[in-house]
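Per-record layout

source: Bacteroides gallinaceum
name: Glycoside hydrolase family 3 N-terminal domain-containing protein
length: 946
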Amino acid sequence: MRKQFLYCILACTALGTEANALNIPKTYVPKNKSMYHKEWIDFNKNGQKDVYEDPNADINARIEDLLSQMTMEEKTCQMVTLYGYQRVLKDSLPTSEWKNQLWKDGIGAIDEHLNAFRGWGVPPLKNDLVWPASNHAWALNEVQRFFIEETRLGIPVDFTNEGIRGVENYIATNFPTQLALGHSWNRDLIHKVGYITGREARLLGYTNVYAPILDVGRDQRWGRYEEVYGESPYLVAELGIEMAKGLQTDMQVASTAKHFIAYSNNKGAREGFARVDPQMSWREVENIHVYPFSRVIREAGILGVMSSYNDYDGFPIQGSYYWLTKRLRGEMGFRGYVVSDSDAVEYLYSKHKTAKDMKEAVRQSVEAGLNVRCTFRSPDSFVLPLRELVKEGGISMETIDNRVRDVLRVKFMLGLFDSPYQTDLELADKEVNSAEHQAVALQASREGLVLLKNQDNLLPLDKSKIRRIAVCGPNADEKSFALTHYGPVAVEVTTVLEGIRNQVNEGTEVVYAKGCDLVDPHWPESEIIDYPLTGDEKKGIAEAVEKVKQSDVAVMVLGGGIRTCGENKSRTSLELPGHQQELLEAVMETGKPVVLVLINGRPLSINWADKFVPAILEAWYPGSQGGRAIAEALFGDYNPGGKLTVTFPKTVGQIPFNFPAKPASQVDGGQTPGMGGNQARINGPLYPFGYGLSYTTFEYSDMQLSSSVITDHQPVTVTCKVKNTGSRAGDEVVQLYMRDVVSSVTTYEKSLRGFERVHLEPGETKEVKFELLPRDFQLLDIDKHWVVEPGMFQLMIGASSEDIRLKKGLEIRAYGRGATGETIQSDPTDFISASKNASHIIHVVDGDYSTTWTGDKGEYISFELADNTKIDHMLVTWKNAEAGSTYEIQISSGGGQFLPVQKGAVKPNADDDIRFNLTSGSDIRILITSGKAEIAEVKLPELRKE
């Protein structure tokens, strides 16, 4: 519980762009000490503890109590965002004028306040309130204090911010972009990235982070390809779940996922500010784009969703009750609040033309399910027409109350009504961008690297044999790839040139020549017209060639950057932009060994390089430590082990060309080129989904299924062994694919259904295990129902989607019927799940006290309860347990949010009748909170049976 705040007066006037010589204490203490009691805060200043001020009261009761005290003006203020300093807000700290502004009645959220980002192409903001971290946290506390101490009901504000590659701030731990993170295929790493991002955000004063991005990549020309995890909805879901869970650890911040929904497949990859009418069937939308949101909402319990500003099938998502209410809340169980993406509300009338004016756009958005409007405009532009609508009867107070409930629920869940301030200012300075966090960032920079080609084992380079190395190209000494939007904006960046200089042996000379710019003077028109080289370009290329001739090896650092990729930067071509190709060809003509390093935000059609350059390393945008990670990989101090989560087309003429794909949809006709051949177009990918090389080799063997025949209600365990057969330690990403052999509708040729990144020493063998659940075999049938159709399924394990090493068939039979009509025994585990060892959950309901399910700290087993169940106890028989092991009983009422109802110590080899207050819920969970424990049996009459 909160401790008594100490009284402290912090003298500081309202500041503009500078704050001079602030005397920031180690611990923040607010001013109005009469409000702050030992275990509660008197938000409404009435001298008594109201229900909404009581930390021990039920959260729903707190919401209703506060809502009952709010005026219409206060409610509508909770439905809008105020953009921060130098975006919309003119003041860095509260002033007396704030009492005359709209937000005198409160505000839902303040976005990007003092995070240093001022706009694309504008230098970051730097003053004493931006950095150091303690000053920043103090400043956000002061803003928070205004809303708590100076508004009638004291409702805290939700401080929102971006955070897909580290929290967006002047300084914070800088991670690679989300595309690079996806290429790690490492759930544990992504969880750590999420945790660090959320941890640093809260230490800086932010309480809501706009991440992860759950868009699935479909068209490689799209500008925001750098922001997706990949093309597989399964992979996006798996990594999105971990990112969200990491962010929301201990409710340190809310995770707001984006962009809901069907956003990432624009017509011809053209941006357009409304991104209208993605060309997709409803089935593709469900299979590809809805799937990650559905799973992340259910399994990670995210507290925020950003509604996208595209339309689908002619209906703008922002004005769609079907998408924002029926699907999002009704089907997926979302319980947080929906925030609009930029001008999504305004676009209803300015772009989509489905509303006649702003007022009608507001009405449509709120009725559809929008909770909070968020864009770079005055909050008055939304709140004032909203109030008019309420007064005119255009929107009911019931609707307003429903929208505000969701906003308040998130604020209560984040603890803003119990601990609204970040009081440990000294800790912010210690942890934000700390060495410990930097170590995780470096791991991420390394694990996102993908080795695309290594002819004759040119890599790794032998330091002892290199006396002079030429590093050339527009990305060789470039830093901007680590400072793109939606992450830290002013951190120190190690370039590839610096990384190589730091990595070579003493006495080895490293020379540098840029060679050419990232783009040419006529770009992007030069993508369709072949303009000749300018005099300066010829001179630059000649300089690079000369330095390569005098060197033992050349490292060419080419690709893209913030000029060629990013928001509103879709491309016409996937070739190397500008005259980089001419630079590469000229260097290759020297006859010297050449290594190509790509730094870019999307797959590139590097056909010539693939044919003629001996070694290619794909780095994506590898973060502030990317130069170090790349250098370590080039010289063998790190063995790259990333695999592609995207497809490299050979040409834009093949697009759409992606994974997963329907059978034969990416296969062309003839295969024989030339004058006498029958081939009419280029076939196949340059590099397929899942592809990636290593400095060592791996052998796959011994694929096993826990059962070759299961019912459509049962899980199955798949195992195999992987051995490092080379001389170097390395990582292998083992991939499990599934195909429905015969189905009522056409399904994908291969669907990713499991992956594990494993580290193996030379000669080492490890067993890899995958747990497949019934949902992994589902298809969307002709009646638009998700079903598992009985029949044969092929399970495939491989090193990529095209390099399949092992296969086995699996038969799925209809529940209750065998292959010849015999009855199959009822499966008691249909409504039980576990975070680990899912195949062992049968042991807790089989009546055999010698068999157990085992859970370590953080692992859980969940039981779905019958409808309209009220429960006050459960009988758990514990088996063996580590000393000091503890547990927590949690109950969910839907939406993925589990709240604790009882805690205790594990009683080894004993029956434990665990009692708690009578509670209604949909699911109950046993969570191991410390140590390790075995559960032999669980007696739960309330378990759902059908």
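summary: Residues 697 and 726 are 5 Å apart (CA to CA). Confidence is low (pLDDT under 50) at residues 1-20, 819-826.
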